[in-house]
Amino acid sequence: MKQEPRAELRDFAGEPESSRRYFGWRVTAALFFVAVLAWGFGFYGHAVYLAELQRLHGWPTSLIATASTLYYLASAVLVIFVNDAIRRFGAMRCILFGAVCFAVSTAALGQIWQPWHLFAVYLVMALAWATMTVGAITSILGHWFDRRRGLAISLALNGASFGGVIVIPAMVFAIFAHGFSITMLVSGAAILVLAIPLALFVLGKPYPVPLAPGLRSTEAAPRTWTRASALMSPAFWVVSAPFSLSLLSQAGFLVHQVAFLEAPMGRTGAGIAVAVTTAASICGRLAMGVFVDRLDLRAFSAISLLAQSAALVAMTQTESALPLFLFCAIYGLSVGNLITLPSLIVQREFPPAAFGMIVALSTAITQFTYAFGPGLTGFVRDASANYTPAIGLCILLNLIAAGIVMLRPKV
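Structure (tokenized):
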């Protein structure tokens, strides 16, 4: 059920949330760069790590992929508790801890020589991923924003897309010029150099007001939400289930996008298609951020899923480069928004005191689910010897998700 917003927040200097001088916008900018680092080294970087570890050590793809899956599953468990950690230790300490874990694990990747080292390094990196990505970013911004929370989250999470655009080309160039080991050491140092000032000088400031429970005009009586009550609530599952399915589909397609498009477009064309998808994702997030306060978020989510489904259907019907670029752009417009939308729906439909906990729990379930996307898509592809059934599975998951997300149980 949609709830009325709280009174406008004011920062420690008395600036209102609607002001350009409101300190929350500096927090948003800092978290944008946190997202650049986290997704650059903790998400997109895995494709580079896989290729380099194979080249250096001759380890099988299945071994490295298993370590990556363990990484996502471990971080899915850890992110459940990230809101509690932020409340207890503060945003600054949590981001500092994540940055140190990212720096240590990234630097160590270039120094390992046994398979078990990789699993150990990825478990340390899982701590970083849990404390520097969606659950942490939305929880921190939940303390700083109410009326403009949708725009703030959209802007901050755009750093995820920029992480792929900025970090990966720089990493590939550095590896070519200086080798994997040196590049990883320098990358670890760069993470600390960038993240520590952001945490100390921006994220350490006091919150404008605490996120305390308050009775809204649409609430008959206050309710205390716990993880157990959320897991038993249909209202929670009609947020978590559709986005778990949609990101299962999305992760499967994006990991296999180059392999799927390489036959009709060639490797260079497929690489450009990935760039087009990423650029469209940035545009889609920015556009949604501008209009988010006026959108029916559930209807918008369903339309986004249907648009992705239509784009995937169209991709299977042509081998011409220009239409494929267009369909990749259409698909990409929703890629970032499907990560952002769950937290925005939670903001509207759950009490403010439950926001951080509900988002963290939903993010954990979603991440646990989409960790299996690349493997499931690959299994279907191998079983059928082509990508058409695998793409069909991605389409089916999106259609089911679109139907579920339009359900509107009372909170």
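Residues 1-5, 210-221 have pLDDT under 50 and may be disordered. The domain at 16-211 is CATH 1.20.1250.20 (Growth Hormone; Chain: A;).
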